[in-house]
Design a protein that fits this description.
8 helices; globular; Nucleotidyltransferase, domain 5
Length: 186
């Protein structure tokens, strides 16, 4: 099973800034979607927030302060994924996730539910951004304005209003399917 995910955060420093939203899509090994969700949390409860982050992520301070406590949000995320996977561990898949999203998510788990990390996720993760870079370096990727998710998606005909955790997750999943298809078809 694969869990595509994306985070919206209160900044770019994983050791300092907090998560505002987790968008996720769970699929079977046969690539059938069996669940998805968007879980929002109040990042001010456990971390700092860089006010400039709100220029990108469609949230604001007042709105964030109404969201549930991060511990409750994480418990909801764990419960929803566990219910769907029935105890099967999943691979994490994201865009630039190895460098950014996974460290942010691990920090949240370390603070509120360290034990669930290894129960939910395999040791494997797939970073579609790294795949894009490899394909580009080997001249197998369509030319795009940049390697940002929104630009790569545009190059593959995927419409994306970036910086919404669930929409970015869905776009990452669609992009990964198109990349696999283009590799298979030569």
């Amino acid at each position: 099973m694969n869990l595509y995910f994306d985070l919206e955060t209160g900044g770019l420093i994983s050791s300092k800034h907090g998560i505002i939203a987790i968008g996720w899509v769970l699929e079977t090994a046969a690539h059938t979607v069996i669940g998805s969700g968007l879980i929002e949390m109040n990042p001010y409860e456990y971390a700092e927030v860089d006010p400039t982050a709100f220029q990108y992520n469609h949230y604001d301070k007042k709105q964030c302060k109404t969201f549930q406590h991060p511990e409750l949000a994480l418990a909801q995320f764990v419960r929803e994924v566990r219910t769907l996977t029935k105890g099967t561990r999943v691979n994490l898949i994201g865009y630039n996730s190895d460098a950014f999203d996974i460290p942010m998510l691990k920090r949240l788990f370390a603070k509120y539910d360290r034990a669930s990390w290894n129960k939910l996720f395999t040791y494997k993760s797939i970073d579609i951004f790294k795949t894009v870079l490899w394909l580009y370096d080997n001249q197998l990727l369509k030319a795009t304005d940049s390697h940002k998710l929104v630009d790569v998606c545009r190059g593959y005909g995927i419409d994306l209003d970036a910086h919404d955790a669930l929409r970015d997750t869905l776009a990452t999943r669609e992009l990964s399917m198109k990349l696999v298809g283009s590799i298979r078809n030569g």
